[in-house]
Amino acid sequence: MRPLQALLLLPLAGALLSGPSAELWADLSAVPWRPVPTTIYRRVQFGSACQCRAACVADPRCQALQVRWLSDGMFTCSLSSHRRGAAEPIKPPADEEVAWFERAGPPTPEEICWPAESGCRPPTDCAELRRAGISDSGVYSVSVSERPVFCDMATDGGGWTLLQRRGGPISNASFAQPLLAYKAGFGQPSGDHWLGLEAAARLGELRPQLLRVDGWQDDELWFAVYGPIVLDAADEYRLTAPWLEGNTTAELVTPSRDTRFYACGSDTYLRSWSCQSAGWWRDPLQFQQGTNLNGVLHLGELVSQWVTPAGTKYQPTRTELKLRDADF
Ligand SMILES: *[C@@H]1O[C@H](CO)[C@@H](O)[C@H](O)[C@H]1NC(C)=O
Ligand SMILES: *[C@@H]1O[C@H](CO)[C@@H](O)[C@H](O)[C@H]1NC(C)=O
Question: Are residues 97 and 134 in the same domain?
Answer without folding.
Answer: no
